[in-house]
Each structure stands twice: as C-alpha cells, then as structure tokens.
Amino acid sequence: MPTIIVVAALVVAILIFSGAYTELLWFNQVGFTEVFWTERIAKLLIFLAAFLIMAAGVYFSIRVAYKARPVYAPDSAREDNLNRYQMQLEPVRRVVMIGIPIVFGLFAGTAAMAQWEKVMLFLYRVPFGSTDPQFGLDLSFYTNTLPFLGFLAGMLISATVIAFIAGLLTHYLYGAIRLTERGIFASRAAQIHISVLAGFFLLLLAANFWLGQFATLQDNTGYRAGAMFTDVHAVIPTKAILAVAALIVAILFIVAAFIGKWKLPLIGTGMLIVTAIVAGGIYPWAIQQWQVKPSEGDVELPYIARNIDMTRDAYGLTDMEVTPYNASTTATAGALRQDADTAANIRLLDPNLMSSTFAQLEQYRPYYKFPKTLNVDRYTIDGKVQDAVIAVRELNPDGISSTQQSWYNQHLVYTHGYGVVAAYGNTVTSDGKPKFMQSGVPSTGELGTDTSYQPRIYFGQSTTDYSVVGAPEGTAPIELDRPQGNTPESTADNPADESLTTFGGDAGPNVGNWFNRLMYALKFQSTDLLLTNGVNESSQILYDRTPAERVAKVAPYLTLDGNPYPAIVDGKVKWIVDGYTTSSNYPYSQQQQLQEATTDSLTAAGGVGVMPNASVNYIRNSVKATVDAYDGSVDLYAWDAEDPILKAWQKVFPTSIKPFAEMSGDLMSHVRYPEDLFKVQRELLGRYHVTDPTNFFKNTLAWSVPEDPTSTTKDKQPPYYLSLKMPGQDKTAFSLTTSFIPQEVTGTDSRNILYGFMAANGDAGNVKGVKSADYGKLQLLELPDATQVPGPGQVQNKFQSDPTVSEQLNVLKLGQTDVINGNLLTLPMGGGMLYVQPVYVKSTGSTSYPTLQRVLVAFGDKIGYAATLNEALDLLFDGDSGAAAGDVDVTKEPGTGGTSTGGTGGTTSTNPALAKALNDASAAIKEGQAALAKGDFTAYGAAQKKLEAAIAAAVTAEGAAPATPAPTATPTPSAAP
After folding, report:
1. Confidence of residue 156 (pLDDT cuts 50, 70, 90)
2. What pairs with residue 576 in β-bridges?
3. HEC secondary structure over 453-519
4. Do 368 and 265 share a structural domain?
5. Is residue 813 classed as helix, strand or coil in its secondary structure?
6. How far apart are the first and last CA of the chain?
7. Using an 8 Å Cβ cutoff, are 507 and 469 in contact?
8. Which cellular component terms (GO) are annotated to the entry (predicted)?
9. Is residue 453 domain-shared with residue 529, that is, in the same domain?
10. What CA–CA distances, in Å, run from 632 to 348, 403, 456, 541, 575?
C-alpha cells in the first residue's frame, strides 16, 4: 500500500510539474515571463500567508488547550468515557494536532490565492484624484483598499472562529470544560483562552462594522446604488455605533480573562446583540418606512443625483455630447445633399449574413472556413476610406475528410488557414454578389498580395487544437499550404494540386529535445506526439491559438471584448482585441451584469462571443491588444493611460504593457470603438440619459434598446458599425451606432417610435502614436417627446405589410428561393432618420448563398424599394435624393420599384401584368393541391405547367430573374502526405 501511495504521488507530481514547466515555456516564448513569475509568486506568497495565519491560529489554539488540560482521576461515567477517547487518540495525537491545522490552512490558502488581484491592486494602488461625495475619500480607497481590507478581515475572522471551535473542542475532550449538574464548568486556563479568542473576534467584528460604513456607498439593494437617505442617516451612524460597542465588549472580555469576572462582558455581549438588532435592523427599517417612503421623491433626490453623476463617470458617459434633434418626417427632393458623404458609405453588405456567401465564393476547400459573423472595418483605397466586410480564411479541422483524420494530418499537415477576404461594404456586383477588394488563392486585391503581406493564418478564432510546425532548412515540407488550382503552375491534368510549406517563424516552444516532447506529451496526453517521426530538432508546438486565449493569459487582469477582429496591418494579419479594466466597487455606481448587457440577437445566435457572467460598476477600454495571425506574438498597448486601475497593473507588470505611442499609424487606422463597452453604455443610457434627479425618479423618460426586427427571437438589436457624419459634425467618422425607443415594460404594448440615436466615434487617426481627439466621443441625438419618427419595429412592419412592396418581394420568393431581410440600419440624414435594409435572395439548394437583390428604404411614413440603393433613395426623395449611394455605378436589369406612404394606398407604381401573373400562380398552386388530394396526377401535372408559366410571366413582368445557386466549391483535395 505505501508503494502505491508513493507511485501515485509521484505521478501527480510529474503531471503538475509538466503543466507548470510547459506554461513557463509558453510564457517565455511569447515574451511575457514577467507575468508568469509575478502572478505565480504573488499567489504563492498569498497562499503561504493565509496558510500560516489559519494553520498557526488553529494549531496554537489546540496546543494551548491541550497544555491547559487538567489532571484528575475520572469520577463519573462521562469522564471515564472521555478518558477512553483520550487514550485512543494519544497514539496519533501529534499527527492530529498538526494535520488538522494543515488541512484548514490548505483550504484557507487556496481560497485566499484566488483573491490575488485584490491584494496586488491594494499594494500597487494609484489614486484617482477625485473623491466620493459622502466621506471625501479618494475613489481608490473603494476600488483598491476597501476590497483588500474586507478580504483581510474576513480571513482573520474565519481563522479566529475556527481556532475558537478547535480550542473549545480540545478543552472539552480533555476535561477543561465539562457539563455538570450545576451548569458548565470551565477551568481557569480555559476561561482565559476562550475569552482572549472571543475578545479578538469582537475586535475584528468592530473593524468589520467600521468598514461597513464605507461599504454602504457600494450597496445595490436600495432604490439606486450607493448610500441613499436611510443609509446616510441611519445605517452609517449605527455602523459606527456598533463598531464602538463591539470594541468595548472586546476590551471587557480581555479584561475579564485576567480578573476572572464575567458579568460585564456577558452583559456587554447581550447589549451588543440587542443593539445590532435595534440599531442595525429596526431603526433603519423604521426610517425607511415612516420617513423615506412617504416623501421618497423629495428626500432621495440629493442621493439620486450622486448616483447619476458617479454612474455616468464610472461608465465613461460624463462627456457625452447631447444634441436635440427635431427630426423631419417629410421626404423632399434633394434632402440628402448635405449628407452626400454618408450616403456614399451606407453599408449594403450585412456581415451577419455574408458568411455562407464568402464560403461559396472564396472558401475553395472544405478544410477552410469563415466565421459565422464577419467583421466591419475600413481601408484607404485610392485615397478614399472604404468600409469593408472582412474575414480570414481559417483552418477548419472538421472539414478534413474522415479518411484523413489521423493524428499526423491533424497536427502536422493541416496547420493553418490562408488569406484575407474583404468586400466593399457599400456596393455589390450586378448580380448581387459581394464586390471583393481582396480575394483569391493566392491572395490578391487592393489590400495587397501574398508577397506584400503574410497570408498564412496559424492563429485564429476557430484554431483550437495544437500543431507541430517547423523544420531545419532544406527539409522537405509537410504542411499543406494552399490550393494551387488557380495558379499559373497548375495544369489542366492536375488542377487540384496543393502546395506545401514549412513554418518559418518563432511562434511556439521548442519540442526538438526529448524532455520537452515528454512534457508536452503529458500535457496533451498524446503518445503520438512522443513517438512520431514527424517531430525534429527545430519543431515548435503551437497551442492556445485563439486571440482571446493568448491575451487572457498574458493579461489575466483584463476582461476581454467578445469580438476580436482581423486587419492587415504593416504587412501582417493582426487580430485586434479590446481589453477592459473593470471594478465592482466604485461608489454610488450602478451595477451592470456584463453577460446580460452584451447579449443581443447576434450573441444569442452564436455569431459573436459574450462577456463573462460578472457584475461590474466601472469599466474602461484601457488596453488595445494585437495578436499576430502568423506567429501568435502578442502586444499590449495602454490605450487609456490615465485609468488608475491600469496604472496599478502597470506597476505590477512594468514591462508587459507598451504605451500607445508605439502603435503604428497603420494599426491606429484600424482601431475602432469597442462593441461590448458600447453595449454596456447603451444599456445604462436607457435610464442615465436623464440627468435631472426629479425626472430620473419619475422614470417617465426612460428608454429601451429596440428588439432586432429581423430576428424571430426577442433579443436586442445589435449596434452597427457605419461610416457617417453626425448632425453638427464636420467630417465622416467610422462609428458604432444604436437607436432607442420608449421603455418597454413586460406585459404592456409600448410604442415603437424613435426617441434617441447614439454614435461613438471610432476613428483614432492614422498617425503613429497620436490618438485623434475625436476618438471615443459619444454623441446622443435626442428626439422630441412628441416625435412621430417610427422606430425599427414600426419600419420593419411597414416593409412587410405594404401591399406594393409585398407584391414585388413575392416575385423573389417564386421558385426554390427564400427572401432574407438584412440588418435594418438607422441613419440621421436629410434632417430626419433614414432607414436602409438590404434584401437578400437565397435558393434552397445545399450550395446556395444570399445575394443582394433589393434595397428597402424609409423616411418618416414613406418607404421605397429598388434593385439598388441609389435608385431606392431617388425614388424615396421625389426622384432626386441629392446624393449618390455607393452602388450608383451598379447596373441591374430594369425592374419595378417605387414608394409607398404606408397609408391608404398611395402607391406611385403599379404593375398589372405582375399582379395577374401572381394571381395565376396562386390559382395554379391551389389547383395542384386539390388534384393531389384527389389522387389525380394528370390534373396535378397540368397545374404544375400552369404554375411554371405563371412564374415565367411574373419574372418577365417584374423584369429581374431570380437568383441562381452558386457553383459548387472546388472539389475536395486528395490526401496530403
């Protein structure tokens, strides 16, 4: 048995060592060894401190109780039983006296180690430079000091209570405390021991009560976060009273331990309990019920004002520019003339629908894939900034043929994706496909070629397994690089050749020696890694390959945005990841649940990631991180260098974060306003756009984020990246936008009209190390309360219910096709609010993909539709919008378009031939269904011929053929070597 235990312990030790050793290799390779050692040494020291406090307290309590045991002959059956227990315990007494404290110490150390961030933030705290409105203390006391003091007090109280219980049980076991007919007997030594521990506990309780005064400013159980009227006038004073009372009783216990008189400490304990019940519970309750509730709207106003100011400051809303916007609802000719730049940039490609289109047109092989939701960025082409829908062609391990699913292929051959694919956001081809600015294999286009940038994607969002890459110079390559089917080297006889490559960067720890191979074989539990002949002296192992994983490991103190995005930067593909410093301890700030606040129709559908299930009341986009898609290198830049929490972490890890002055101009040009921060801010803004405490309390002006009208689920509409010029601004900016409607209350019918529109400026400029002064500027357009501007839900309903629009869209549904509504964009243009929605058609075939066939637009109560956005805008604004859309040069077959007021008709275009064809098609469908019901297949065949004729007539009348399925993807390649 001892041998088995020793072997098991040795195996566990080797596994633990392999995990720690391989982690050290990883951190050393990526250049963040400082983070590895600092975090682990901090955790170790905290573990040891908590272990020693708990273990020492329990040990000495047991030892003191044992030393104070009385020596006497048992004079009763109970004492005789205790004596037998003592005799049975004696052989293992030393082990027990040491083992019990060690066990409790291990539990305490493990729990304390998880609080390492609180300890580090306290030790390296940096003042905020502003104070709270109640006590006048610097805000760092609440975010850095108070959490640590609370943790320390809690740990000491736990150690004291467990030591007290351990001492009490030891005294009882050895007879120093025993039950008699006259009551409880305690020896003099036991009395001193127990009273000292009780006194120390009360001292800690007094400190805890004292700290509780300040914790009221972080309370979230009242009407609003922070100390409200009852807290200020009842809770805070009683906390101070209880602290003083506990201190007095603690002194009484300690004095009683030496004079042996217990009357006063016992009376004091009783009074403390009564005081805690009356002063700590009944008195605040009475104040709340009888003084606050009858006049809550008046007495709480000063504290509501505190909550408003501190919440807006904590979430970066203080400097938001609020602009009254009396939006027009009348579409007049030339209305968009002042918004020509915005009109030219209106995005038509919906990044949430384009994944399958990119896949069918640009995937090339099943072992490649595109993400479910693509990203929106911008690039300068021919001196003009163009919005782009962009993605990288990542490796898809599930696309490897089942006959090729060997360890060798999965980890040594199929190692990376290839190339960037990007399309213009504001236009399409004549048949509705994306107009690519970067595409193909090899990669070509406006953004470069595979010689001007590194196209190989070894690190990406879908790359989750490890790969072994690299070889000495001159070694035959084994990694599958890319298809060659469309290269000049390919031949007609063998068009599906695949090129091979060998990774030439420095991206992972070396596994060329037997020891490292053994350690990684243990880490990944893979005998293949240990035994394969595919590993050589230059081999590197790549793992933890997603951008979020890599940034989270080197910056464990950051909360990361759920949507990293790729960009071609300085000849490399870089993943850009937004990192946040957060706190849940900011005084008077309202808590937000991150996962709930950042969930919308995209996250619910799995299109982008969500933030963790954590509550915060302070957030800053303090770090911009990049991850190289080729070599996995990570760079952290201090984006908000004035954030005090980031400054504290920079003191903890002084070399790991670079100043943003080191960011290249190319990288600066691809920085954008972070999506999850914006979601959290807009969620708060539903209430906190109101800054007057009286109106805030009445809650009559509250807003909600509208539900996504294109989704079948009741999820919030996601924010959209757009290039637009906001009213009052001088130039177009790449912005993140959202709209607001009146507050939606469960169980009621709320009006879906537009009350507000917010945009965050995401243009940081393109000069190295110089951040544009306008970056991060929030501008809120407030529409009048009596506005009649329809909200997204109303507009979507108009699009779907308008008889003329329905007639035209029905043509697209004829045959084996589906009509898909794209994202409904809201833009402040023409003195009002313009809505734009692309309409896609997708055939029902297995290789089908959406193509843009129509564009719907709305302004006020008027809607328009046409084959292009430019035509639709002209139709909407009385024949001349005054601006040219991005698809102005796109020529489609002439079809019917028009406008509608959405009222009692008002259609400006009709098509009798189309209407007749649709009626004939409907009749033919009914005839066919009736024939099938009777089993008359002859009649059914005749009805099908009528249906085909009606569809053909409808297509002719409508003037545009329905979308055809795309050609299938390139055939699957043969097995790689």
Report:
1. very high
2. 626
3. CECEECCCCCCCCCEEECCCCCCCCCEEEEECCCCCCCCCCCCCCEEEECCCCCCCCECCCHHHHHH
4. no
5. helix
6. 49
7. yes
8. extracellular region; plasma membrane
9. yes
10. 33, 30, 11, 12, 9
* Three-class secondary structure of residue 773 per DSSP: coil
Residue whose pair of structure tokens reads 């779907």 in the numeric block: 800
Q: Residue 185 has what pLDDT?
A: 73
Domain final position from 306, 332, 355: 306
CB 317 within 8 A of CB 775: no
How many Å apart are CA 619 and CA 641, to the nearest integer?
Answer: 14
Does some domain include residue 647? no
Structural domain count, the chain:
4
What tokens appear for 361 in the block?
């047109």
Q: Which neighbouring-strand residues pair with 375? A: 390
Domain that holds residue 541: 346-485+497-547
Q: Cα separation of 953 and 65, whole Å?
A: 100
The encoded tokens of residue 352 equal 């949430």
Three-state SS sequence of 189-243: HHHHHHHHHHHHHHHHHHHHHHHHHHHHHHCCCCCCCCCCHHHHHHHHHHHHHHH
Token pair, residue 407, equals: 């360890």
Report the percent of the chain where pLDDT is more than 70: 89
278 in the same domain as 353: no
d(CA 165, CA 170): 9
Three-class HEC string of 109-168: HHHHHCCHHHHHHHHCCCCCCCECCCCCCECHHHHHHHHHHHHHHHHHHHHHHHHHHHHH
Cα–Cα distance measured from residue 965 to residue 332, given in angstroms and rounded to the nearest whole number: 39
The two structure tokens encoding residue 553: 């490991």
Q: How confident is the model at residue 85 (pLDDT cuts 50, 70, 90)?
A: low
Against a cut of 0.85, is the pTM above it?
A: yes
Return the amino acid letter for 244: V
Judgement on whether residues 416 and 471 belong to the same structural domain of the protein: yes
Q: Please indicate, yes or no, whether residues 173 and 238 belong to a single structural domain of this protein.
A: yes
Q: What is the token pair recorded at 374? A: 């693509």
Residue 76 pLDDT: 53
> Would you say 718 and 601 are in contact if contact means Cβ atoms under 8 Å apart?
yes
Which phi-psi region, left, alpha or beta, contains residue 823 (left: φ > 0; alpha: ψ -120 to 50)? Answer: beta
Which residues face 447 on adjacent strands?
none
Co-location of 138 and 219 in the same domain: yes
For residues 695 and 674, what is the distance between their CA atoms, to the nearest angstrom? 30
Question: Which amino acid, residue 537?
Answer: E
Tens digits of residue pLDDT in 627-639:
999 999 999 999 9
Residue 397 and residue 471 in one domain: yes
Determine, yes or no, domain membership for 438. Answer: yes
Measure the CA–CA gap between 913 and 920, rounded to whole angstroms.
11
- Angle, vertex CA 640, rays to CA 636 and CA 646, nearest 5: 70
pLDDT at 713 over 90: no
- Gap between the Cα atoms of 463 and 415, Å rounded: 9
Higher pLDDT, 284 or 423: 423
**Least confident piece of the model among 240-249, 759-768, 920-929:** 920-929
pLDDT digits (tens, 9 = 90+) for 830-865: 999 999 999 999 877 667 889 999 999 999 989 999
Residue 858, in any domain of the structure = yes
Q: Quick one: 302 and 355 in the same domain?
A: no
